[in-house]
Design a protein that fits this description.
It comes from Candidatus Desulfovibrio intestinipullorum. This is YedE-related selenium metabolism membrane protein. Keywords: Membrane, Transmembrane, Transmembrane helix. It holds the Pfam family Sulf_transp. The chain is mostly helical and 361 residues long. Helix content is 64%, strand content 2%. It has 14 helices and four strands. The strands form two sheets. The protein has a two-stranded antiparallel sheet with strand order 1-2. Helix 11 packs parallel to helix 14. The longest helix is centred in the first third of the chain and has 21 residues.
Length: 361
């Protein structure tokens, strides 16, 4: 991180502001409202595009996911920070990824989308952010009692490159089998013809913008979970300043474009069931904390060679598919048929994982 502008307070603020502005630009170019960048939602769409779930309105190989990983990979290679590593409770991280995705889809968004929803005037996001903070705070209580999933060890370049290679394969698939206008399937891939999955910015624009975000975020260590964790544990506002800058930039952009609409009702891809907006993100926030990073940060770490982070990301992909196949994901009409059960079971599993890995337990 020596001589790295992005690692300074000014750098993290610039990174946050950049993410906020580019997210609104993606919305202007065609992404769903208040969903310029949402890792949980976009991994759900990727799962649908691969046919892993049957919800026809959320199927599309989102190039933003590919761009975030490849941008982080490029930054890590250029800075000499590509370090293949793995072996820190991989199956636990995979399970935490599943729980994180299912909790986030009860709320309908990852931490980044919660910020973007609030910046667009969606008051339901207040409950989601409160839940996120509560879940992460619970995670810090485990940290204070010696929580650890153990240390990862150095691995081969092949291991570190495995997840980026999968991402490149997805990119090739998307380029070889582009959507045929009005058709729900092109070769092996599925495409939404209505609903959020059908709303997207041009492919190359999404890929390029996400690449820039991934590059800057990897260099700055931008992380929503880390920002709140450091604030709660150490009183440090370094990462939190980037989080606030993201919100402020997105808010200003929405106000300038006339896309700020405050209220609980009628918000894009959102529901008004306050308790489960809160509890869904409590579960997701605790899973993020126990895994060591928010969904975006996990993608960036996977891009720099962390195979454990790649497993968490794959867990989120599977969890997103399960959320729709098992009826736990929410929609604009409210929470899914089994959203309550999924949230509470996921929270219980997180608590078991937390207590089981505390050295002082």
């Amino acid at each position: 991180m020596k001589n790295n502008f992005f690692a300074t307070t000014a750098g993290i603020i610039c990174t946050g502001a950049l993410i906020g502005l580019l997210a609104i630009l993606l919305q202007k170019l065609g992404n769903p409202g208040n969903m310029g960048i949402c890792v949980a939602c976009f991994e759900r769409d990727v799962a649908g595009g691969l046919g892993l779930h049957r919800a026809a309105i959320v199927q599309y190989l989102r190039p933003e996911i590919m761009g975030l990983v490849l941008g982080a990979l490029a930054a890590a290679l250029i800075s000499g920070e590509f370090r293949p590593r793995a072996g820190s409770a991989p199956i636990v991280r995979f399970v935490l990824g599943i729980i994180a995705a299912m909790g986030a889809l009860v709320f309908l968004g990852c931490p980044w989308r919660a910020i973007l929803r609030l910046a667009g005037g969606d008051a339901n996001a207040i409950l989601g952010l409160a839940g996120l903070a509560t879940g992460i705070f619970a995670g810090t209580l485990f940290f204070r009692n010696g929580y650890s999933l153990g240390r990862s060890s150095t691995q081969s370049v092949v291991t570190g490159a495995a997840f980026p290679f999968l991402i490149v394969c997805l990119l090739v698939l998307a380029l070889v089998f582009p959507q045929i206008s009005g058709q729900p399937q092109s070769g092996p891939l599925f495409y939404s013809v209505k609903g959020p999955g059908s709303q997207h910015a041009p492919f190359l624009a999404s890929l390029g913008i996400a690449f820039l975000v991934g590059f800057a975020a990897q260099r700055s260590r931008f992380c929503t979970m880390g920002a709140l964790r450091d604030l709660f544990l150490f009183g440090s506002t370094h990462l939190f300043s980037g989080l606030f800058a993201m919100f402020a930039a997105a808010l200003v952009a929405n106000l300038a474009l006339g896309s700020f609409h405050f209220g609980f009702e009628g918000q894009p891809v959102a529901h008004t069931v306050s308790l489960w907006n809160f509890l869904g993100m409590v579960t997701a926030g605790l899973a993020f904390a126990l895994a060591g990073g928010c969904p975006g940060r996990q993608l960036f770490m996977a891009g720099e060679g962390d195979a454990d982070a790649g497993l968490f990301a794959l867990g989120m992909l599977v969890g997103a598919a399960m959320a729709h196949n098992l009826g736990t994901a929410s929609s604009g009409a409210g929470i899914g048929a089994y959203g309550v059960e999924a949230t509470l079971i996921g929270l219980g599993v997180c608590l078991v994982i937390g207590f089981a890995h505390c050295r002082k337990a």
